[in-house]
Amino acid sequence: MKNLFAVIKRPIITEKGLDQKEEKSILCFEVNVHANKREVKDAIEKLFKVKVASVKTLSFQGKERRRGRYTGYKPDWKKAYVKLKPGEKMIEYAENL
User: Fold this and answer.
1) pLDDT of residue 2
2) Quick check: 83 and 90 in contact, CB under 8 A?
3) Rounded Cα distance, 29 and 52, in Å
4) What phi and psi values does residue 23 have, to the nearest 5 degrees?
5) What's the rounded mean pLDDT across residues 42-69?
6) DSSP E strands, the chain
7) In this structure, are residues 84 and 51 in contact, taking their beta carbons and an 8 Å threshold?
8) pLDDT at residue number 1
9) What's the whole-model pTM score?
10) Which of 35, 40, 70, 89 is the most exposed place for a label (fewest CB within 10 A)?
11) Strand pairing of 26-31 and 77-84?
12) What pLDDT sits at residue 96?
């Protein structure tokens, strides 16, 4: 993938994610379904100017949703947990919560 913003879609802000961010220096992002760990690592390092120690990814199947008698599926998506190297400055994206 060439575009960094095509790899990383958005940060995932949940209670679990914020706890891991403060205690373990782990960030959580929604990423492109076709992105691999190397692309996620490179995108995070270039966008936020930090050093990444490791990346773990999880793939999720889209859930079935209904509107009256019509059924459909939400799209599949992928989550990435990014661990920063010790001594790196933490990225602040959930300051106002």
Assistant:
1) 72
2) no
3) 14
4) -90, -40
5) 95
6) 8-11, 26-31, 52-60, 64-67, 70-73, 77-84
7) yes
8) 60
9) 0.87
10) 70
11) antiparallel
12) 55
